[in-house]
Amino acid sequence: MPKTNDKDAYFFSHDCNARNDPKILALRSVYGAEGYGVYFMLVEILREQPEYKLSVTKYIWSTLAMQMQVEASRVEQIITDCCTEFTENGKPLLVNDGEYLYSASLLRRMGKVDDISNLRREAARKRWENQPCKDDSGDEGCTGDANAEQNGAKKRKAKQSKPKQSKAEESKKDIFADFACGDADLLAALRGFNEMRVKIKKPMTEQAKKRLVTELEKLAPGDRDTQIAILHQSEDRCWAGVFALKTDAANGFHSNSGGRTSTSASDKMEALRDLHDAFSGGDGR
């Protein structure tokens, strides 16, 4: 398999006197420098392919013609002759087996290159495996796992390169998530209230969030449903704070024997406070 990201990605051995090879001389005698160029451009293209072979499809000639800037019919003619006419001892310049187009010479040469690369890779792996390491007592002589050593080195490097966070960032917690403690509905209500505060241009500080959850717990200790309802009440009315749920009586009037009666003085004061908070943004909670 060719490697296209190494420094030798496009290497293949090329004899300096290839132009004098009998098969290439025959090619040159018919097609001149054009045939010579088409042949070696194809060899370079084959070098870039998986397994150094090119699939034979109905578009192969037009594709090669586009890359070589030669008429498709001319490319097909030259390469077909390389597969059938320009031979020596029964061996043609190129092979077209109906499925793949390839060069037997390139396969042979690249096979040697790949074998050498594989041997070097295996030797490097063995050196890693046999590299002395220190055991718990500090003595050398134990054999370590190469992959584990490499992974450990990468982790140490990543840890060293990780930017240091400020103490404030490290200690910063998601107050709402901690308070909701896994209750998705409560967390969503808290997030919704926070978004409402942003929209009315009264964003909450971290301290304001702490005061909010503290007040919620006072208003409805352990009662998640009521806490959610309280948050929705404030969000719907654009209140900057949270207050006990309002009943019909607290809204100002209620029906009694067909008539309208006013609420108590305390209820009126509470309603006035709600109006004040709605317009002023409350006490910053």
Blueprint of the fold:
Blueprint: H1 22-47, E1 54-55, H2 60-68, H3 72-84, E2 87-88, E3 91-92, E4 95-96, E5 100-102, H4 104-130, E6 132-134, E7 140-143, H5 146-161, H6 167-171, H7 175-180, H8 184-199, H9 206-219, H10 224-237, E8 253-256, E9 259-262, H11 265-280
Antiparallel strand pairs: 1-5, 2-3, 4-5, 6-7, 8-9
Helix pairs in contact: 1-3, 2-3, 8-10
Characterization of this structure:
By secondary structure, the chain is mainly alpha-helical. Among the domains are: 18-110, Arc Repressor Mutant, subunit A (Orthogonal Bundle); 175-280, no CATH class. The chain has helices at 22-47, 60-68, 72-84, 104-130, 146-161, 167-171, 175-180, 184-199, 206-219, 224-237, 265-280; strands at 54-55, 87-88, 91-92, 95-96, 100-102, 132-134, 140-143, 253-256, 259-262. A hairpin with a 3-residue loop joins strand 4 and strand 5 (100-102). The longest helix has 27 residues, at 104-130. Mean pLDDT is 79; it is low at 1-5 and 249-263.
